[in-house]
């Protein structure tokens, strides 16, 4: 297929989906925002509530496509989930064990396709997993291999991807054949270099296995380590004992999972585009309810912003970000392996900076909602920026940007990336902005309100790197 035909097909596909005219700020913004609850925390608490010995309560959960997919999984496996009160959900684990003979729709949620199979291995029959077509490209193989080592029967219809069927699991016999013997826990060795969620998945279910689990990561890199810390922290909260036997191996003791009774923090990765908005327009944004202590890697956006020239401060109202005058931003050379989720928003800021940037350590983003490295390079180039893929990330060369229609590839964070650029570059049209509802339903409305606080009275946010050298600022 030639490039002309590729372009024609792309143009046809693009014209079929609705677009959103991203609002452009008329000057530095001054906004207060509240973002929805953390996806990563909400879906961890839901999984643990399913495994718990009694009913659980989750306050201020995230209501979004990803958490709806997780609720669907819990209900399929027999749990009662009462989510009628948006501010307070209750979960009743099924009496008499998890129900098999069911289908689970993972949607686009990595947390569902990775965290639920190890739990489904405890069900009384086969559980089939499938999801959105974009999710069928995402890796799950190491979790399935781990479950095979624990004695589960796995029928793969893909190749280490959705769809697949999980049946049965960690029996005593298979446990000893996996290297246990006597009361020793089975040993599972997996390569989690493509996703930290493989590790979190097996850790979350491990205590429910008859002899627990010894888990070893065999790969050379392990991305998103803070998300593994988040898993360990959540497990400690519900009384599960986990020993870290090395930086990349863990021993999960068998035992009861205590009922969950928690309040979910705001999603700090969903907050990132709003923090970026302050930096890009030289304005101020306050994100309410920012936790003083958190396991969410999104908190590291503060370091990224500091490196680019914006300042942040934790105030009684929330986290306040103040951009440098005229939205002046410095290019950065950053290893984002621990905070890969932030890459699209950081890349947007890099395209608005005065100097080139390099974002490293994020090869695993090729297996996210889309191949994010390719998507970012393509969309940055469409706007006129210089962008190039590297083996483990991308390099960005700022240039004058021109508004155009941007694709989002069914990726919530690509929608947020496009919105940040549109706040500064007039004429950005965002394809399928509703895809942000994976983690942030109504993102476009909250975003438009924040951008509308921009006033021409302050230093006007400039539209090109030449303008952004601060010369015209007071
Ligand atoms: O455990 C979690 O909740 C997550 C872990 C990370 O996954 P990867 O390690 O696949 O990047 C992160 O990117 C994802 O958004 C959420
Ligand atoms: C990678 C992400 O999601 P998931 O939980 O589906 O992996 C993300 O939210 O950036």
From TrEMBL:
CDD domains the UniProt entry points to: EPSP_synthase (cd01556)
GO biological process, one term: aromatic amino acid family biosynthetic process
Source taxon at top rank: Bacteria
Keyword Cytoplasm: yes
Protein name: 3-phosphoshikimate 1-carboxyvinyltransferase
Its EC number(s): 2.5.1.19
Reactions catalysed according to its record: 3-phosphoshikimate + phosphoenolpyruvate = 5-O-(1-carboxyvinyl)-3-phosphoshikimate + phosphate
UniProt lineage: Bacteria, Bacillati, Actinomycetota, Actinomycetes, Micrococcales
SUPFAM superfamilies reported for this sequence: EPT/RTPC-like (SSF55205)
Binding residues for 3-phosphoshikimate: 39-40, 44, 195-197, 224, 341, 368
Known partners and oligomeric status: Monomer.
Xref: PROSITE patterns: EPSP_SYNTHASE_2
Purpose: Catalyzes the transfer of the enolpyruvyl moiety of phosphoenolpyruvate (PEP) to the 5-hydroxyl of shikimate-3-phosphate (S3P) to produce enolpyruvyl shikimate-3-phosphate and inorganic phosphate.
Pathway terms, separated by semicolons: Metabolic intermediate biosynthesis; chorismate biosynthesis; chorismate from D-erythrose 4-phosphate and phosphoenolpyruvate: step 6/7
């Amino acid at each position: 297929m030639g490039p002309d035909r590729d372009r024609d097909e792309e143009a046809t596909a693009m014209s079929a989906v609705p677009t959103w005219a991203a609002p452009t700020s008329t000057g530095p913004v001054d906004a207060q925002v509240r973002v929805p609850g953390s996806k990563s925390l909400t879906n961890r608490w839901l999984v643990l509530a399913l495994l718990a010995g009694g009913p659980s309560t989750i306050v201020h959960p995230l209501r979004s496509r990803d958490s709806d997919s997780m609720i669907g999984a819990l209900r399929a496996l027999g749990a009662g989930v009462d989510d009628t009160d948006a501010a307070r959900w209750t979960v009743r684990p099924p009496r008499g064990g998890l129900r098999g003979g069911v289908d689970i729709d993972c949607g686009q949620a990595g947390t569902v396709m990775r965290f639920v199979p190890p739990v489904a291995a405890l069900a009384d029959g086969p559980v089939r997993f499938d999801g959105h077509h974009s999710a069928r490209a995402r890796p799950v193989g190491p979790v399935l291999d781990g479950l095979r080592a624990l004695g589960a029967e796995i029928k793969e219809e893909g190749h280490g991807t959705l769809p697949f069927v999980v049946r049965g699991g960690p029996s005593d016999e298979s446990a000893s054949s996996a290297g246990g013997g006597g009361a020793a826990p089975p040993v599972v060795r997996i390569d989690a270099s493509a996703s930290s969620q493989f590790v979190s998945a097996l850790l979350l279910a491990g205590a429910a296995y008859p002899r627990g689990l010894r888990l070893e990561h065999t790969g050379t890199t392990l991305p998103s380590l803070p998300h593994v810390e988040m898993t360990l922290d959540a497990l400690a909260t519900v009384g599960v004992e986990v020993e870290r036997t090395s930086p990349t191996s863990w021993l999960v003791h068998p035992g009861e999972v205590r009922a969950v009774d928690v309040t979910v923090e705001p999603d700090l990765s969903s907050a990132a585009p709003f923090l970026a908005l302050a930096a890009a327009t030289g304005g101020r944004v306050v994100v309410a309810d920012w936790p003083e202590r958190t396991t969410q890697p999104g908190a590291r956006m503060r370091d990224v912003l500091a490196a680019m020239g914006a300042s942040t401060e934790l105030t009684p109202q929330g986290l306040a970000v103040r951009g440098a005058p005229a939205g002046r931003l410095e290019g950065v050379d950053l290893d984002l392996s621990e905070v890969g989720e932030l890459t699209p928003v950081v890349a947007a800021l890099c395209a608005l900076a005065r100097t080139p940037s390099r974002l490293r350590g994020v090869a695993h983003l090729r297996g996210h909602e889309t191949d994010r490295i390719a998507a970012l390079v393509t969309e940055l180039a469409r706007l006129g920026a210089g962008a190039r893929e590297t083996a483990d990330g991308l390099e960005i060369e700022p240039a004058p940007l021109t508004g155009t229609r941007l694709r989002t590839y069914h990726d919530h964070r690509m929608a947020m990336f496009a919105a940040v650029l549109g706040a500064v570059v007039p004429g950005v049209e965002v394809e399928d902005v509703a895809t942000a509802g994976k983690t942030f339903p109504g993102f476009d409305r909250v975003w438009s309100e924040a951008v509308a606080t921009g006033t021409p009275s302050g230093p006007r946010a400039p539209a090109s790197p030449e303008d952004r050298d601060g010369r015209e600022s007071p």
